[in-house]
Amino acid sequence: MDNIKLKEKNIFHLDEYLEKTSGESSESKKIIDISKDKNTRFQEICSAVKKYFQIEWEQEQGDKGEKYDVLLERQKKAIIGYKKEVSFFKDKIEEYIKVNNLSNEWHPKWYQNLSSAIFHENWGLAGINEWIEASSKAIEGSSSAKIIGDRIYFLIDGKQVLQKQTISYERRKQLRKALLLKTPKKRIGEDYHEVYMLNGTRITIFGEGKTKDGQDTFIFRKFFVKDYTFEKQAQLGTIPEYAIPLFQNMINVGFNVAFSGAVRTAKTTFLTTWQTYENKELEGIAVETDPEIPFHKIMPTAPIVQLVADGEELEGIVKSVLRADADYIIMAEARDATAFYIALEVTDRGTRRSKMTAHFSRAIDFPYNMAKKICEKYQADLYSTVLKVTQNFNYVFEFIQLQDKSKKRLKGIYELRYDSIEHKVTIHQICKYRHSTDDWCWKYDIGEDKRIIGEEENYDAFKMYDAELKRIAEKYPMPEDENHITQPAYNHLRR
User: Fold this and answer.
1) 257-261/355-358 β-pairing
2) How far apart are CA 281 and CA 41, in angstroms?
3) Cα 132 from Cα 139, distance rounded (Å)
4) Calpha distance 263→200 (Å, rounded)
């Protein structure tokens, strides 16, 4: 008899509350035996809670299509961080847990508590939420996470580490539908999308049409930097601390600069840092393909017009940007011909203090690569466009990742120089990173055209820049036998 009573105690009805609210008969009750393994019980609890929500939505909504849209809209807003929608889910889940005496039930360790676990398993980000919330020291500095098929990876100490948790195909499909219920701000094609969470985390989605069967992919990227100072960049090892006065004087002179390198090499971070030292009284136009840089928060008093556009949208505002009377332009994440065309045309009108980033891995190829992108779309002459790029952009900063992907370095600084008499382009490397010693060496070399810019813009700043480069090059010299000048073979491009 005691054994029978014990067995009855080991059985509970998760649907008792459902019966009260939905009128279900006792015959339809789902009985969960707590003698089952903890993961099976957890999944059955999740299913029961999901059923509870669905019944409530069916009672609240009329048309089936409307019901589905309301559910997905609430889910999307909760995923990307709207407090009202997060509370909507979690408050009801907490109520369900309390009514059904489930507070002591087990949940996977990658969730903070049972209500969070149930929400994310059913409607949220599933196992990726551990990375979103940075719930352990190992991942609090992680800048990226991936879902590839059913596998989940977190970037930890510069390496993608496979996690224990997985996410099923059906769950991924549901997540994708929720995030894309209403056409997101950034949508390229049917199988490539970008969505932003309220905290700035970017979610890039590659659907089945872009991947192998069963390998649809979600890429999550956090942007951690809050301290946009050269001192912080030096602390991280990205730049040498002794070069900070040099950079500050380059900014004060007003050179046009480009920041190049592969993805995740800190180009955008360095551009943003560079911009924070800009004269806050000058008018600027910032054009981004993604809304990543909040200049209105970083430089709240500066008159910067911030535009977010790409593809056809960017094409549609070309004339407006070119007609604007801004003192400088910021072209963040320049990727396509239109972005490069705008940057070149603005600087060709004599605009200085302009900045841009480009996904070019070799700085010495910057003039050719930029010109080629433009000419492929706008049918311009390649040779003359190369010369124009060289004339209009003064310096290119190249960045790299080290083997430890969490570490970035300034690989080199290159001065672009054009001899208008001989029609000759030369590229002068004034800074070079050395992997073997994890330091930099320098060359004192400044073109006459840069001196002219200094005289016209801010000669005091130019003299300080000149003196700083000379001082650094004497203290950390580039080897004498090392050729720091490249003359690209562009003559064959002449018609």
Assistant:
1) parallel
2) 62
3) 9
4) 18
CA distance 29 to 18: 9
What pLDDT does residue 248 have?
A: 98
Taking a C-beta distance cutoff of 8 angstroms, is the pair 192, 210 a contact? yes
Q: Which residues have CB under 8 Å from 186's CB, separation 6+? A: 193, 194, 195, 196, 289, 290, 310
Alpha carbon distance 132, 119 (integer Å): 14
Each residue of 128-175: pLDDT tens digit?
999 988 878 888 878 889 999 999 999 988 788 999 999 999 989 888
Give first-to-last CA distance, the chain, whole Å.
Answer: 101
Identity of the amino acid at 195 = V
Please tell me the distance from the alpha carbon of residue 24 to that of residue 15, in angstroms, as a whole number.
9
| Domains located in the chain, CATH noted | 10-124 (no CATH), 126-223 (3.30.450.90), 230-493 (3.40.50.300)
**Is 309 in contact with 317 (CB distance < 8 Å)?**
yes
State the Rg of the chain over Cα: 29
In the block, tokens 């996690």 appear at 163
Q: 402-453 pLDDT, tens per residue?
A: 988 889 999 999 999 998 888 889 999 999 999 999 999 999 999 999 999 9
DSSP class of 110: T
SS3 12: strand
Integer Cα distance of 385 and 378 in angstroms: 11
